[in-house]
Design goal:
Layout (H helix, E strand, L loop, with lengths): L2 H7 L14 E5 L3 H12 L3 E6 L5 H5 L2 E4 L5 H10 L2 E4 L6 H8 L3 E2 L3 H7 L2 H10 L7 E4 L2 H11 L3 E5 L9 E4 L5 H7 L5 E5 L3 E11 L5 E3 L3 E6 L2 E7 L5 H18 L3 E10 L4 E7 L9 H4 L4 H10 L12 E7 L10 H7 L4 E4 L10 E8 L3 H15 L5
Parallel strand pairs: 1-2, 1-4, 2-3, 4-5
Antiparallel strand pairs: 6-9, 7-8, 7-9, 10-11, 10-12, 10-14, 12-13, 13-16, 14-15, 16-18, 17-18
């Protein structure tokens, strides 16, 4: 029996109202995003559980209860629905049949359609085009002929990306010569892809937007993002852009959330070209790495907002309490042993440290982050960078 048939066989109506503490709510996915959601829910008085593959994951370490199993396993989903009155996700790659099955029994936000669109680049870009939301020119690549068409119509260089399962730079190849296009597609397994025109951008921005069940939407100020090896390295808020660009970015994020009819937290990532044009790059239907600094820097964090939207509560205030900078702590920092936490904290007592409880450090793996608040966002960034350098400085 297929997974879809198994899920669709057992039908029941799910609820859609308001869930108040101390009710039990849950998250599918047990990484750092799930961990910070659970911590926010507990602070608000909820019992918070997680669907996790093991009991040692970052989210399971802090959860009130844990259901063990993969996210598309029917017995595990039954157990999750038995305990959680409202259920959300920390990543987009949860199967649509699984979410539809859950939504007939419990409140599930965001809904399966939002995730179904955003977990596939072809569907996501078709959605953006259909709703007139600016984005880079692109073409589908599913055959050799479509690959040739993409090269001819988009020009070079272009980016070839797998339609599914790509994140932090995985599943994409730069093609700068027509002769290399076929080998690039082969390197991606000749699976369904999208080809995107190369965008000469000045900066990368992101807007975290929250939409409630009543359609109300709020958004944080745009953040300025810097990536290293395709992984987010730093975010500074507010981004150093003018008020017109900042409002255009927020308006585009509102348009995405409304067109999706999403309920919950979304992050819309943008390219800002040197000509001042905003192009949507990606949509993440969940809290985002670039929004971690809202824990200290905003009146209500992105995780507070995730709890509020999931439970049908009024949304919180997205206003900044202070400009801020966030810097990721990757497993590379552990290459020569445990980082020198005391050095960073002694050098700057204002540094806020978040570690995710991951047992093993690996290069490129997100182990935690630092946040610094400062009246000047560039000073906040400089302080955060100095704190990261202090983590690996060896004293004589």
């Amino acid at each position: 029996m297929s997974a879809a048939t198994e899920f669709d066989r057992d039908r029941a109506e799910g609820g859609g109202g308001v869930v108040y503490p101390p009710a039990s709510i849950a998250v599918i996915g047990s990484g750092q995003l799930g961990r910070m959601f659970i911590q926010a829910a507990q602070q608000m008085g909820y019992q918070a559980g997680v669907l996790s593959t093991t009991s040692e994951t970052p989210a399971a370490q802090v959860a009130n209860w844990t259901v063990l199993g993969p996210p598309d396993h029917l017995p595990a989903l039954r157990a999750l629905a038995d305990r959680g009155e409202a259920i959300t996700v920390e990543f987009e790659n949860v199967s649509a049949p699984a979410l539809r099955w859950l939504a007939r029994r419990r409140i599930v936000r965001p809904g399966w359609r939002t995730l179904w669109i955003s977990q596939n680049r072809h569907r996501e870009k078709s959605f953006l085009a259909r709703h007139g939301i600016p984005h880079a020119p692109w073409r589908p690549v599913r055959t050799d002929d479509e690959l040739k068409t993409a090269v001819r119509e988009l020009g070079l260089p272009l980016i070839l990306k797998t339609s599914a399962s790509g994140y932090d730079g995985k599943g994409q190849v730069l093609v700068d010569k027509a002769a290399d296009a076929e080998s690039a597609w082969k390197a991606l397994g000749q699976t369904a892809c999208v080809a995107e025109a190369w965008v000469e951008f000045a900066v990368e921005l992101s807007v975290v937007v929250v939409r409630g069940r009543d359609g109300q939407s709020v958004a944080y100020p745009p953040g300025l993002n810097h990536h290293e090896k395709h992984i987010l390295a730093t975010t500074t808020v507010p981004a150093p852009v003018g008020p017109i660009v900042a409002q255009e970015a927020r308006d585009a994020a509102f348009a995405v959330a409304q067109a999706l009819d999403a309920v919950g937290v979304l992050c819309v990532e943008f390219f800002l070209t040197s000509a001042g044009r905003l192009l949507v790059n990606e949509i993440a239907p969940r809290p985002h790495n670039s929004g971690h600094l809202t824990i200290e820097a905003a009146c209500s964090s992105q995780f507070d907002q995730q709890v509020r939207a999931l439970c049908g509560l009024p949304l919180g205030d997205c206003a900044l309490a202070s400009p801020a900078a966030m810097i990721n702590l990757l497993g590379d920092l552990w290459a020569d042993g445990e980082p020198r936490w005391e050095q960073a904290m002694r050098a700057d007592p204002g540094v806020k440290l978040h570690l995710y409880g991951k047992r093993t450090a690996k290069a490129g793996r997100k182990m935690g982050h630092l946040t610094v608040l400062d009246p000047d966002p560039q000073t906040a960034l400089a302080r955060a960078l100095a704190a990261r350098r202090a983590l690996v400085r060896r004293t004589p």
